[in-house]
């Protein structure tokens, strides 16, 4: 393919240039490292309202050892992401890989991704990566076996099949994977799922089915939602800044992200597209979130939100206790308390706008004593705490 030829040519030319240049002492330690090692370099990057093309160039040169970073601009253009998209970043003491992930998150709104090959990092789109689809088959006999509150009959079985299909479609949409059109299909028949999607999509399906088979209990953090040390430190730094009269709002931080006060707070900041336009409004409305690398994203409130992820909670014991303590003789079916549990969760977790299952991005639904939830990581922790509280 032309892209691979370009990457090989670019790599050879760059390696030749590096080979002809005497290494500086700072770079000498990196001469024998591969691209995976170079991605773990600590970097420092300061960029104020620069085009995306410039920011990628700065990223490639931000470590002690430069990397070969190639951008598939035709794919980005097809996704509606221009080269001149303005971004601002103040990043320090984070790995190059975390910085790349942060920038493509900021610029792509779930559309961008990156691939690592021999000596090269390519920035591309999920759509480009997902062009090559394949069909795989999955055994759904376990997920379709209702051991909690069995309802006999063909209709219930068909409803379960339809629910699991929607569940998997929701997981694919959650990661930005295309779910319709050519070479995309999910069909459930005779306890078997025939899924036609990209390798990335199949990874998401396997993860969803694994979460369904291994749900977490109320009070536990679902996979991928634990608070990292970097995120906790960034949250503490942000709170201190917002408590300071000189930096008492996100508007102040977004207006002057490189001031000495912010620098002393040791806070990594990335301003999302549209922030500058928002700041010029009479009353700017900004929002923020912090990723696991401790990078603070600030942008317009209408478009800035932490990405959703899937969690599955095991509420079977919780619902059984609710039924046993209902005071009704005989006790009602435990499944009848699922609605009460969901109502309790929604009343306690107000950081998201809850939508209907199958229609909204932030949503939840019961399934045979399990609770399936699609919300950001912070909200997943709140959901877990709310379920634990309901159990009391």
Principal-axes geometry comes out as: globular
| Estimated share of beta-strand residues | 15-25%
CATH superfamily of the largest domain: DotD protein
Strand order of the largest sheet: 1-3-9-11-10
| Fraction of residues in H or I helices | 40-55%
Alpha-beta content class = alpha+beta
Q: Outline the low-pLDDT stretches.
A: 1-32
Report what the structure shows.
The protein is α+β, with helices and mostly antiparallel strands. It has 4 domains: 2-129, DotD protein (Phage tail protein beta-alpha-beta fold, 3-Layer(bab) Sandwich), CATH 3.55.50; 132-214, 2-Layer Sandwich (Alpha-Beta Plaits), CATH 3.30.70; 229-300, no CATH class; 309-392, no CATH class. Helices cover 41% and strands 22% of the residues. The protein has 16 helices and 14 strands. It has helices at residues 2-19, 25-28, 35-38, 52-60, 73-78, 96-108, 126-129, 154-174, 199-213, 229-243, 250-255, 260-264, 275-279, 316-324, 338-348, 377-391, and strands at residues 42-51, 68-71, 86-95, 112-117, 120-125, 134-139, 185-189, 192-197, 268-271, 286-290, 295-300, 308-314, 363-367, 370-376. The strands form 4 sheets. It has a 5-stranded mixed β-sheet with strand order 1-3-9-11-10, with helices on both faces. A 3-stranded mixed β-sheet has the order 2-5-4, sandwiched between helices. A 3-stranded antiparallel β-sheet has the order 6-8-7. A hairpin with a 2-residue loop joins strand 7 (185-189) and strand 8 (192-197). Helix 4 runs antiparallel to helix 6 (96-108), helix 8 crosses helix 9 (199-213) and helix 14 (316-324) runs parallel beside helix 16 (377-391). The longest helix is centred in the middle third of the chain and has 21 residues, at 154-174. The protein is globular, with a radius of gyration of 24 Å.
């Amino acid at each position: 393919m032309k892209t691979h030829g370009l990457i090989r040519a670019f790599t050879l030319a760059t390696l030749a240039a590096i080979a002809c240049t005497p290494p500086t002492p700072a770079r000498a330690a990196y001469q024998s490292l591969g691209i995976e090692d170079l991605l773990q370099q600590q970097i420092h990057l300061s960029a104020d309202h620069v085009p995306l093309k410039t920011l990628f160039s700065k990223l490639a040169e931000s470590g002690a050892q430069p990397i070969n970073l190639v951008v598939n601009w035709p794919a980005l253009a097809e996704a509606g992401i221009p080269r001149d998209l303005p971004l601002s970043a103040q990043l320090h003491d984070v790995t190059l890989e975390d910085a790349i992930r942060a920038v493509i998150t900021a610029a792509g709104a779930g559309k961008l991704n990156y691939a690592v090959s021999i000596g090269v990092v390519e920035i591309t789109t999920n759509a480009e990566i997902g062009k090559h689809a394949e069909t795989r088959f999955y055994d759904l006999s376990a997920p379709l076996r209702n051991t909690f509150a069995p309802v006999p009959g063909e209709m219930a079985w068909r409803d379960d099949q339809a629910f699991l299909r929607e569940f998997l479609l929701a997981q694919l949409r959650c990661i930005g994977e295309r779910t319709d059109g050519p070479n995309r299909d999910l069909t459930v028949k005779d306890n078997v799922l025939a899924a036609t999607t990209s390798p990335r999509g199949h990874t998401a399906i396997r993860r969803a089915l694994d979460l369904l088979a291994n749900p977490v209990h109320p009070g536990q953090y679902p996979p991928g939602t634990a608070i990292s040390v970097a995120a906790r430190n960034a949250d503490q730094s942000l709170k201190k800044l917002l408590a300071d009269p000189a930096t008492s709002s996100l508007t102040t931080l977004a207006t002057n992200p490189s001031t000495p006060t912010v620098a002393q707070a040791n806070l990594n900041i990335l301003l999302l597209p549209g922030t500058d336009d928002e700041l010029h409004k009479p009353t700017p409305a900004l929002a923020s979130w912090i990723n696991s690398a401790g990078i603070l994203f600030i942008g317009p409130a209408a478009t800035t939100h932490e990405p959703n992820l899937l969690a599955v909670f095991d509420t079977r014991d919780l619902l059984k206790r609710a039924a046993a303590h209902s005071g009704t003789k005989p006790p009602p079916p435990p499944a009848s308390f699922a609605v009460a549990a969901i109502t309790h969760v929604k009343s306690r977790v107000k950081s998201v706008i809850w939508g209907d299952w199958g229609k909204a991005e932030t949503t939840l639904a019961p399934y045979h004593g399990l609770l399936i939830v699609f919300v950001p990581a912070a909200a997943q922790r709140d959901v877990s705490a709310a379920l634990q509280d309901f159990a009391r």
